[in-house]
Each structure stands twice: as C-alpha cells, then as structure tokens.
Amino acid sequence: MYEYVNVGVKLPKKIVKEIDEEASERRVDRSTVIRQAVIEEARRYRVEKAVQAYVEKEVSLSKAAEMAGVDYREFAKILSQKGYRFDVETSEAKRLAKELEKILA
C-alpha cells in the first residue's frame, strides 16, 4: 500500500522511552510504533481538512471524501459522528438509486 522512505528525526528522550514501552507491550519494534502513529496522524489530518472544507462549503461531499481518502459513505458516517449534517448531492442520489435498483433487482 505504501512505498517507504527512511526518515531521521530527533525526539525527546521521554517520548522515546514511552515509544519503547509501547513497542515492548505490543511486541513490535520502535519503528513500527512510530510509523503507525505517523500514518494515523496523517490520516486524521486529511480527514479534519476534508471535514472543514465540506462544512465551510468549499467542496462537495464527494470531493471531501476523496480528500479524506475514504468513500462518500464513510465520509458521511464521519460527518455524522462529528455531529454535522450532510446533504446528498443529486449525482450521489442518482448513484445510490442505481445501486439500490441493482440490489433489489
């Protein structure tokens, strides 16, 4: 899924100790803990940017979902969990209707 590149970074000793403790508890190496944390934070950031853009009506639901790296159903779920309303756009409504027709056929 990802192509990896080595990156060097300086961290406070206290944080490294916490990372090492977590790695030991999870029985993985330090790099795995750091990598997973960075990937998760990057995902969270993408989602937050997409939510903000959608709420401020800068982008459509479909475009916001694309920005977040999820499909529009997952993005609608994210909006709902965050307490935001969402409007299904005409093109998405048509697509949903076609999918429903296929399921019911």
The gyration radius over C-alpha positions equals 19 Å
Which residues form runs of ≥5 with pLDDT under 50? none
Q: How would you classify the helix and strand content by structural class?
A: mainly alpha
Q: Percent helix among the residues?
A: 55-70%
Reading the helices and strands in chain order gives HHHHH
| Largest sheet, strands/sense/barrel | none
Number of domains: 1
Multimeric organization: single chain
Strand content: under 5%
The N- and C-terminal alpha carbons lie at a distance of 35 Å
Shape label: elongated
Question: pLDDT average, as an integer?
Answer: 89
Number of strands: 0
Number of helices: 5
Any overview of this molecule?
The structure is a single chain. The chain has 105 residues and is mainly α. The protein has one domain. It is 70% helix and 0% strand. It contains five helices and no strands. α2 packs antiparallel against α3 (61-68). It is elongated, with a radius of gyration of 19 Å. The model has no long low-confidence stretch (mean pLDDT 89).
Topology of helices and strands:
Blueprint: H1 13-26, H2 30-55, H3 61-68, H4 72-81, H5 90-104
What's the short story on this structure?
The protein is mainly α and 105 residues long. Helices cover 70% and strands 0% of the residues.
